[in-house]
Amino acid sequence: MRRRDFLKTAVAGGIGASLRGVDPRRAWAQNPIKIGLPTVLSGGNAQYGIQAKRACELFGKEINAKGGILGRPVEFIYEDTASDPATAVRKAQKLVEKDGVKFLTGTVLSSEALAVSAKCPEWKVILMSTINGAGSLTAKAWNRYFFRVNTSGPMGARAVSLYLAEAPMKRFFGLGSDYAWGRDSVASFEKQITAVKKEIVGKDYPPVGTKDFASYIGKIKQSRAEACYMALPGQDATIFFKQAFQFGLTREVKLITEILELENMKAVGEAMAGTIGSTRYPFTVDTPKNRDFVKRFHAMHGVYPDMFDGETYEGLEWLAQVIQKAGSDDVEKVIAAWEDSSYEGLEGPFFMRKCDHQAVQPGFVVEAVKDPNYPHLIPKILATYPGDRVTPKCRTEEFA
To answer: Does residue 6 lie in a domain region?
Structure first.
């Protein structure tokens, strides 16, 4: 072989060998679509971060088994915010600047979401809410990098108010946790229930993390309210329900909650039977898509999905759909693809309004009931309202 031919063969062989040495699966995995979760994984609100994480685990397993999004795997990166807004901002910034995340989700407290959302225009990343209830997030505090897939607090209050408009109860007490979501929900409920000629006879706002609700229970009893509308998160709600039963409040006053959670039903037990409220996602909703989701979720995690399991999964599925539609994970292209888009959720049809990035979706009122087919209380659907009846006017907390 002549020297020139030898060199050509050697070079070609070297290139071929180097290409054969690259595992295409490794090359694929080196360029994932990253989704960051600055969420609560410790403390009294950890049940919400755990739900978001469970939904991510199921979604990630399923989407990556199908080849990912745009042929790229999806990777989730978790950071514990411990329910602190300043920590949430710091952890979100780390996810963006160090980990290269373009999409954030999983914020738990609305105060955390408000703080993180305010930084998103600077970071040029999307914050997708699947949990946060404060109406202001899609009203006075809105920016174009924030999308809310979930039902908001005012939307939950609206569903409950529509249901109670036909109920005989006329006197209500409002009890909301002392931060954005709790105060927003009580204010929205008060406005809507007084509009149908019913009365708010008292209001109070216990701090997040309250362990002793005796004084609040006393005020509710003294108010002679027929029902108590409450917006308390996580462990706070569990403690309140238990103490309300111990102090006999539930014999005198109907408990109505802005979010009726499976986790609280499991923790409190039969003492919560008969409690009614709105729900962001009831696993008992009877659609083919949801029935299939519940089976897959239970097979993976051994439990039935709670509100934020369902809503986080819906948000991730919708986000994947719009990234695919955009043909890119470029944030500006994804925003354009998401605005005024439709999605068939677990609960029914969703529509993402361009004007405020609030998802229009069905609203539910449910009751905690015993069912022999389940090891704990479940949410029985009492009423379903179409999205246009339970979604506020654009960038407001007002309803038509």
So the answer is: no
